[in-house]
Structures are given as structure tokens and as C-alpha cells.
Amino acid sequence: MTRMTVVGKIGAPHGVRGCSKLTSFTHPSTEILEYSPLYVQQNDSYIELNYKIEISNANALIIKVKDVDDREQAKFLTHKLVLIEHSQLKTLPKDEFYWEDLIGLFVEDENGLSIGTVTKILETGSKDVLVIENNDNTILVSFRMGESILKVDINNRILIVNSNQLVFNDAK
Length: 172
Hints:
Layout: E1 4-14, E2 19-24, E3 39-42, E4 45-48, E5 51-56, E6 61-65, H1 71-75, E7 81-85, H2 99-102, E8 106-109, E9 114-122, E10 129-133, E11 138-142, E12 149-153, E13 158-161, E14 167-169
Parallel strand pairs: 8-13
Antiparallel strand pairs: 1-2, 1-7, 2-6, 3-4, 3-7, 5-6, 8-9, 9-10, 10-11, 11-14, 12-13
């Protein structure tokens, strides 16, 4: 099965003609429109999203899906994730990574001591923060290559951190 990547989500219906709001997880938000085809998941399969753009600006992306002709039909699309084939993602510059590639990485410090696993990423506005969990703790580390993050090896699923940059959160 092809690896799929979530790039957005269909939101609430817009108007009465079957249009829907499209929430993009790409930066900038209109970059989602550069991917083709887009898919939605239905049970265990992926269905190509046949749509046209109704409104595209900095504040909103409104789409009209083929054969969805009224507000009630559009409600069935609400909250559906929008996906692309992972191979469609653009190649990033060195030391930049897609979030989904970081989640699940095994984390060690510079001395080889096991820290835990990346479970999620928090967007803070300035630098993203990795949430690392193990059996005992939740650990936070700012994603700053060369400072708090010493090495990312996607192929071997490992991330090396500077132990002096870790923040332990006892709220687990």
C-alpha cells in the first residue's frame, strides 16, 4: 500500500450549493492546491477528491466536490482528512524535516543514553518543540539543529539530542 500523508482536512459546509471549507496543513496554506491528486479516506481505501476551487485567498479555501450538490451532502465530508501520496512531497533542504517523519523516532542523548520516543510536535511560532515520552517522563526539546538537536537519521529512525537542552515535564 502506498504511504499517504495528511495535508489538510475538510471543514464545515459553506453555503447551500454543497461547497466545503478546506483547512490546509501546508505552509503557506495555498500550497495544498499544488498537490494533485488529493484523496480522502473511506473505510480502508482512498478515494480521489474530484473538486474545483470556489474561493482561494489568505483567509479561506472553499472547494466544491463533484456530485456534492447541497449542504446536507457536504456535511458527510466534514472532518474528513485530505491526503496525498507521500512521494508527492517536495524534497526539503538539509536539516529540514516533515513532522510526520520525526514522530516515532527513537531519541538518544549525545552519550548514547536512551531518552524515549518522539510522540508529537508542538508548533510554538518561533521554533517547534518535540515531545519525547518514555515510561517515566514527558520531555520537551526545542527543535534547533546544531544546538538542541545534534543529528536526525530518518533512515535509521534515530534522533540525537543535546542532554543540556532537555526540559522534563512531570505531568505524566
